[in-house]
Amino acid sequence: MAEMQVAFGEASVPENQSRSRAGVLEARRCDRRLPESIEVAMLRAVKTPEMPRAAERACAVSHGQRRRVRAARTWLAQLTAETIPRSICAVSFSRSSGPGGQNVNKVNSKATIKVPMSALLPLVPKILHPSIRSSRYYAENSQALVIQADDSRKQSQNLNACFDKLTSMIAEAGRAAVPGETSPEQKKKVQKLQKAANEARIRMKKAHSNKKSSRKGRSDE
Fold this sequence. Notes:
Double Stranded RNA Binding Domain; 4 strands; elongated
C-alpha cells in the first residue's frame, strides 16, 4: 500500500518512506526537465558553433600566412641594390685601420651606413622582420643596422660595398624567413647577389694587392 501511495504521489505516506517519495518526485521533475535541457543544449550548439568557428579562424590564419609568404617571395625575386633607397641611410666616413698603404690612418676612407629600423622595416615584407632583427648588423641600442666597409682606399667603393652588404643581408633574411622551397627565380637572385658581392670584394682586394706590389717595385729600384 505504501508503494502505491508513493507511485501516485499521495500525501499520506509512512515516515520511513518519506525519503523514497522525495526521491521519486525529484526523479519525476528531472524527467520532465530532461528533454528541455537537451533541446536548449542543441540550440546553443547551433547558435554558437565553437569548433567550426575555431576551424574557420585556423583556415583564415593559414590562408593569410600563405598569402604573406607568396608576397614575400615575389618581393625577394625583385630585390635589387636600388630596392632600399639610400636616402634612408645615414652615411659617415672615418679613418680606416685596414689595408690602404700610405693612406692608413690618414684618409677617411672607411664607410659606415646606419639604417634605422623605423625606416627600413616598412619597406620590407613583415615576415622578414624577425630575421633582420637577428642580423649581426643590428644594433639594439640605436635600433638600426650598422654596416661598415674599409677594403678599398676609395670612399665610393667602400660605400657601395656597404649597400651591397645590406642587400645581401636582406636576401639572406628572406631565405631564413620564407618557409618551404624557394622558387628557381629567387634562388638565382640570391646567388646573383652573393656572386656580385664576392666579385666586388675580390676586385677591391686585387686592386689593393697590385698597388702594393707596384709601390714595392718602385722602392726596390
